[in-house]
Amino acid sequence: MGTFPHSVATAILEKRYVATIKDVALLAGVGVGTASRVVSGKGYASPSTVERVQKAIEELDFRPSHAARALLSGTSQMIGVYIPILKGSFYTPILAAIDTELRNAGLHMVVAFGVGKGDARRQAVEGIDFLIERGCDGVIAMSNHLCEEDIQRLGRRQSRIVLMNHRLACIDAQCFTADHAYGGRLAARALLEHGHTKLAVIGGPSTAPDNIDRIAGFMQELAAAGIDPAGVWQAESDFSPEAGWAEAKRLIDSGYNFSAVFCANDEIAVGAMAYFQEIGRAVPHNISVVGYDDTPSAAFSSPRLTCVRIPWLEMTMGALSELLNQCYGSKRIINRDFTISLTQRASLAKRAGTM
Q1: Of 254, 335, 323, 273, nearest to 81 (Cα)?
Q2: What are the CA-CA distances from residue 322 to residues 74, 161, 194, 302, 325 (Å)?
Q3: Quick check: pTM over 0.85?
């Protein structure tokens, strides 16, 4: 082992100084390049040299800095994730799945979400720019407000971005989404099969393309069954439980005759059911409710929520695998087949008077 200044050794022991790769090399009696090869695991070093370097690392409690690892690998080892809002139960499982998978691969997640005074498109663009400027090797963007020109502006970096819940022709192979129109049709079909023809809809924002698709699919299925969509009570909300409660109240106050409600996501449905229960309109005995997404909270609402299941975690893993293949040359298998289904639980029942 090499000689090491006593003052530096004392400072390290007292946690007043953080050891560097130079310190490791000095204590091990090797060059910095040799110590770096042992730390990174890349390149040859004799067994005795590896032993000396590892002993020095242990004695100095050496931890390679993120910047040092980035220099050694040529990458930041960070993946950026953009989500529109850091709220509610929808995004948490998605972020947890991404973080777990990245940690297992020795990588790290950096998250940005929509803030500022701009519209949803501008917030997404600024969020992606933030992640790229922070050195992320690639970005998963969960936004359906981005346009092709936003992606094309990234130039050669556009190969390092994947989109979830959105599709753009310029990066079609990097887009992972579901057929929300079909999801809407499944919801309508479930209600019709249970004898419900007097229906109400609490939708999400009218500017959200995925919301537009699911509501359109719902209405198309009603029309095919001979029910005039124009006669269906509709409301627009912001995908939150608070909005579900407020719109359920407005629905009841309107005096509209209905036996079932389709809610454009699970959080709206949970809020709506809470209001119905509050005023003594039992779900599903008086009112049936169908949600959308099948988030973890749906299985634990009261009553447990029937909803259209969108395979968000499978979609997330497909998008992440595509991005890791692009960024690091890995050969992960990419799933692009996402089956939408209906999860039947307790919030949907036969309309009173039907067999």
Answers
A1: 323
A2: 20, 9, 40, 38, 5
A3: no
Residue 166 and residue 322 in contact, taking contact as beta carbons nearer than 8 Å: no
Sequence-separated (6 or more) residues with CB below 8 Å from residue 151: 158, 161, 168, 170, 171
pLDDT > 70? residue 334: yes
Give kind and range of the element (H or E) at residue 61. none
**Helix 241-254 vs helix 266-278: crossing angle, to nearest 10:** 50
Distances (CA, A) of 213 to 62, 177, 201, 216: 54, 12, 14, 5
What residue ranges in 12-115 does DSSP mark as E strands? 78-83, 108-113
* Structure-derived torsion over alpha carbons of residues 250, 255, 256, 258, reported in degrees to the nearest 10: 90
Higher pLDDT, 17 or 37: 37
pLDDT tens, position by position, 32-41: 888 878 877 7
Cis preceding-peptide flag for 284 (omega within 30 of 0): yes
- Asked whether the predicted pLDDT for residue 1 surpasses 80, the reply is no
Residue 139: both structure tokens together:
């970005």
Q: Note the pLDDT of residue 192.
A: 98
Identify the structural domains of the chain with CATH numbers, from first to last.
6-72 (1.10.260.40), 75-177 (3.40.50.2300), 180-311 (3.40.50.2300)
